[in-house]
Every structure is written in C-alpha cells, then in structure tokens.
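User: Fold both of these, please.

Assistant: Here is the first one.
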Amino acid sequence: MQSKRVPIGQPSGLGAQAGHGRRSVSLFNLANESARLGQRLEERLTAVLEHGRFILGPEVEELEGALARFAGVRHVIGVSSGREALVIALMTLGVGPGDAVFLPAFTFAATASAITAVGATPVFVDVDPAICNMSPDRLQQALENTIATTQLRSKVVMPVDLYGLPADYAAINAIAGIHGLTTIADAAQSFGAMVGELPVGALAPVTATSFYPTKPLGAFGDGGAILTDDDALAAAARQIRNHGRDGSGEESARLGLTARLDTLQAAVLLAKLEIFENDLAARRRIAEHYGRAFENLVQTPPCPEGVAPAWASYTLRVDERDAVQQRLVQAGIETGVYYRVPLHRHPAFAPWAGSKKAYPVSDQLANSVLSLPIHPGLTNEDVDYVIEELLQVLS
C-alpha cells in the first residue's frame, strides 16, 4: 500500500487513536451514517415530517421505482423487514402446510422462521465448501430424498446469498425447473451484487432483501423489499403487506399482514441510494486489499469470475477461530461470527433437523468463519491496521 494514505471509502473517524496508543476499528459504521449522508438525509427526512404521511407516503413509491430501475425488475414492493419479505413471497405462492421449502443449513434463523411462519416444512440443505452457499448437488439429493421418503409437496427452493455473494442460481434454477419448484432468492446480504450483467433481483423469479442497518443498503431501522417481474405476484404482495387490502379499501381481499415499509425509512434509503454505487465500490476495494494480504495464509472468500459481490461481510476461514478473534479484540478490532450455530442445531428447528451429521460443511464453517470490518467508513489506515494485526496473529 502507498505510504501516503487516502480514504478507501468515506472517512468516518474510525481510524482515530484509541486508548493506550491503539486504534479502534468497528465492524460496522452505524454511528456515523448521519454525518456521512449530510444534507441529502436532512432534506429527505424534513420532507416526510412536513407532509406527515408516515405510512406508505410518497417516498415509499419513489424508492420502489428507484430500486426497480437499479435491479432491472418490473416491481419492487417495500415491506417492514427482510423476514416479512420472505413470508409475503411464500404467501403469494400459496405455500403452506404440507409444502417443503428447501434452504441452506448455514444461514440466519430468519430464513427458516419465515418458512415455519406459513406452516410449511423447512428442508435443510448443506452448503458448498467453496462459496458457503447452497450446494446444487446437495439440493438435488435433498429433493430426491424428500420425494422418496415423505408425503410433502416440494414447492420452493430458497437459496441465501451469504456474505453478499450470490448463490449458484444457474444451477439451482435449473434443478428447480426440473422439479416444478419456484426459486425465492434470499438476498438479504447481497443487494447490489452482480452476476455478469444481471443484478441481484433479476437472478430468480422472486427475490427478497433486507434493509437492516448493517446491510450494504441499510436503513436506520428495519425494512425490506420483494423484487419480481410477475405482475400478479406483485399485486398480491402489495395487498398482503397492508392487511390484504387494496390501498385504503375497507375490504380484505386476502389474508394479510401489517408489513409496510415505513416512510421515514424509505426517505433514509433514498438518501443512501444516491451514494450506493460509491459504497459498493469502496467495499470491493477493501475486499481486494484483504484478499491480497491473506490469500496465502488462510482461506479467503471467493470471488468467481464475472461476479461482483456486495461484500456485506468479508469472511475468512481460520483455524482456532475463537482465539484469533480474541487477539483481534485485544488489538481494538471488532469482528463477527456469522454463523456460530447452523440452523439444524437451533433448538427452535429441531423438529426438522433430521440427522445432525447430515450437514458436515455447515458444521465446519460454524467453527471457522470470521468476518472482518468492511464498510465505506474505513480508511486505508484502518484497513492497514486490520491487516497488520491479523498477520501478526497468524504468524
């Protein structure tokens, strides 16, 4: 790296000296988001306070249009969270009791809980050891086993784009097509990623994403969206998010939820969308710095040719992970473990876990993954410090 350092993303003060001459580098940059957005955020929030339409105000529709253009899809439906986006997507497809929904065993609990919320059965699938996402081969095996040994209707496959890297949708969609399944992409961590010329949102018939504050495009609270080209599905999703009603109508056309995207959060997201491309570029530059530094020492996250991840996190696989994490904590570097417990080992999902020995890759990842800071507020000094300290730990 150059001796004269410049910010990689947006300077945020995270590189300031901490106590005892030590730097402090946080995993996320939430405390500095308002300052980073500046006047554009103030103007957006002020407009909402002035018109007072706090539920489904004009900013929600404006954001939906902007996101649809960004992702290259016909429809975006803003909802209250990433989990509710998954629930609503399942509801629009009529998924319920007696239906099997296939999902990776190594991901966050919201993916599985969305399936159980509609009364369907989650079927866990082990992940690919190279990319940490759903293995197409293991999906095929899980489908064949479900058909052969249960009375369940195989209805949906729900890959998750872990750490911001899209799953292998070409292979998964092909398997889904053979078996008559619909693919719902859980893109909570990958909005902004690209596969060739196709953005996330256009890789599956239905996509659900999250605007939780730590996501690449994060709000100042909960939020999410459903993306699709299907007109009927989009119309159903708009009804479901609002008590099953059309607009402010008095009749519920279908069973619905209270799952609307808050207008203030839409305003925040509109402000952040203006700099989103720059933020994604900053994350990708940081990932390149990390990759060059660590590629010969530990297993670094892959970046397949033609794929541009969103880099929601930069996740290494290291031996003696907990000891390494503690050493970095002592150096003032915050890290994360996503996820320490695979879904088949959660007590809540025990009824559907099957053999706990059936997911060896997920179990191995749970003991070795470690996520480093990667956000637009990091400066070159911050990144250098993370690299220098981790190199010392690994030496």
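And the second sequence with its predicted structure:
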Amino acid sequence: MAEPSAREWLRRLQGGELSARELTRHYMDRIEQADPRLNAVVALEPEVAMAQAAAADRARGRGEERPLLGLPVTIKDSLEVAGMVSTGGSAARAGFRPHHDATAVARLRAAGAVILAKTNCPEYSASYETDNALHGRTNHPLDPERTPGGSSGGEAALAGADATPLGLGTDGGGSIRVPAHYCGVVGLRPTVGRVPDTGSWPATRASGYMDFYCVGPIARSVDDTALVLPVLAGPDGVDPHAVPAPLHDPAGVEVGRLRVGWFTHSPGVPVTEGTVSAVAGAARALAGAGAELVKVEPPWEPNPTALFFAATSADGGLQMREAAAAAGRHHAGFADLVAAAAEHALSAAEWFAVQREIYGLRARVRRLLTEVDALLSPVVAGPAPLHGMPPAGIPREQYAAFRAFDFVHLYAIGGVPAASVPVGVEDGLPVGVQVAGPPFREDVVLAVAGALESA
C-alpha cells in the first residue's frame, strides 16, 4: 500500500503534521493523476470540498474530536449527497441534486469526513461491470482493458489506484465484494440491517431486491474498514430493516480459537486454479494461526444466483423501466437486462413461492454458521476479466447466467456479513477471498480478514 492508511492520515491530522486542506488537495491531485485512465469519478467540486476541509481544520483548532475529522472520502453515485449531482448512472437522473444526504453519507459528514467526490456505477447499479450511457466505462487500475467490476466499480478502482483513502458503496448481490476482489482492496458487506440504506437509488426495500441491499465501506486495509463501520452502523428510524444490534470490536476476537469452514467450488462453476489456490492458502494461514479448519458443503440448492435473479425480476422489470425511463439513453447491457426481466414476470403465487425459497435458503446458510464461526470461500470464480467478458474463462454467451457469482449471491440471500480481502495474484491480477460470519458478527469477519491480511 503506497499511500498511508486512513487511520494513519487521521493520526497525522490529529498530531498537526498536516491540515485537512492539505490532505484534501493531496487526494484531488491523486484523482487528477489517476482518473484519466480510470474514468471513476463522476462529480468533484473542488471549492465545496476545500470549504469542508477548512471547516474541519477550524473544528480541530477548537479542540473538537470526531472519528473522521478532516478525512476525505468518496461516495458511490447511487448514494445521495446533498447538493451534489447524484445520478446512479442513469440518464433519468442527469443533473439531479438531492436536498438531503443518504443516512450513511450524513453519518460520515457528522463524523467530520470531507465528502470529496462521487464515483461511477452502472445504470441502476444493475451490472457486475461499471459502464453507463451517461458517464461511460470505468477501467481497472492495473489494466484498462479489464473491468474493475460493479456495481461499486468506481470506488474500488479509485482505492486500487491509491486515489481515495476510504469509500462508500452498496452491495445487493456482490456489488462491494466483487469490485474489491477484482481491484485488490477490502470491501465489507455488513449484515442486512446493520447500516440503513436510506437515500440510495434505486429504492430496493419494496421490490424484488427485498432486504438484499446493504451500504458498506471499501478501503485499502481491513483496519480502515473496521474504523468506519461504527460510524455507519445503527437504525435511522426510516429503513425498516435497520436495527439496533450490538456492534462488537474485532480486537476482541481470538482467531486461533475459531472454527472456520471453507469451500472452493459451486456445482457447475469453473473456478480458476489461482482462485482455488488462494482459498486453500488462506485456509492454511488460518490453521497456522491456530484456527480449526473444516471443509464444508454449503447449501447450493436452490441455486442462489437463479434465486437472486428470480426475485429481482419478479415484476418483469417494471420498476427498472419506470425508475430509469430515459428513451434512447440506456447502456446496452441495462437494456438487455430489462428485456430479459420482461420474460420472467411472476404471478403473486409464484412470487410468494420464490420468497419461501429465499427464506429457506437463508435459514440453511445461517444454520451452517451455527456449526462454524466463519466461512471462507472464493469471492468470484476468477480474477478481473476483460471488459464485456465473464470471469473464469466462462464463454461470453453464458455471461447472463451469472454463475461465476454464486459465491456472493449465497451470502446476499443469507443476509449475513461478508468481506473480500486480497490474498494473492493470478496472471498479474489481484485475487481475494471471501470471509462470511453469523448475522451481526462483523467483528468475526473483520478479525479473520485481518489475520489473512497480516499473513
């Protein structure tokens, strides 16, 4: 990691080694250097950011202490930032400036963070690649011919290029974990209900996305992820799924006393050798730290990917069409997704049957997490692919089945916390592993991820 961590920047700010204005200018320069090859930033207002930084310096001068005081942060464009363009990658929201912050953004602001920039995402956050008709395509920080993933691809690309100290994304079916894995950074999907998703677009709760969507951090270290989670956590009285669950400290988890289940395959999914090796190596590292490792077979039936898309297209794509209506200004991938959804509309009885399967699979995932303390698996079946191609060498014509993403869909359906942490390299590209834990035990997930990061 070439740049100091977010926690280290905060130490330097507190010690008077630099000002928030200097740090904000530093990251503006980093973005100016990196973004021409990434195309990750969709909105940056230097005067506004510098005014926030100056206010943070004044607050520190008055002796105020806030957990993120003066730290620049970047925000996925699907999360609303008051007064700042917030498009969600859709021409339907071109120029839209909300009057209120999303709850998670407001909490970052209250903690003293400087809201620096908005980052690119696919239209409607509905793709595992970050490209849209409004802002264009975002590229991988190591290879412009490859995707940084989606839908929080702009955040992960910036973090992978050391151009943001901390980012905020969303994860419905892997949209934090997949880009983090592709770009070699850390991404945390909290437990459903840990962080309110109020102020995110598209609206997800009253839809086939149900309670799948989570707001969470993307950072360059596990410690920085742990730093920001307490700022984000807790109910806001608006999101009906957000609850006041206790938040435990990862420092209190003894990894050497954990029982960790691990697996490397999903039926019918070709997983690359490097990915299998990464998971096996991570398992050995945890065993070397004293943890008990046990091979497990997770509940793959009904297939979580098929179930995820059965839910999200249950209305035949009606909500997507209405929310993103902008004739002739859709990305081709989004248009194909809406067209495909139209063929899978469900009757009320069929929709209730899908919900029963979702809650049944969720129960089986959570039951497995009563038998082990954490689960270790691939994030995706392979590293970052070329633009327009599925990962793991899966033929292009099979992309729309999305089977390479079984591993992230499993935990989205399960509603449990999961993190992607980089542990290796395959063909010169980062490879992460996924760590999942029981509901509301992000401390276990982060402790295991931290042990892997250290190893």
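The chain has a mean pLDDT of 97.
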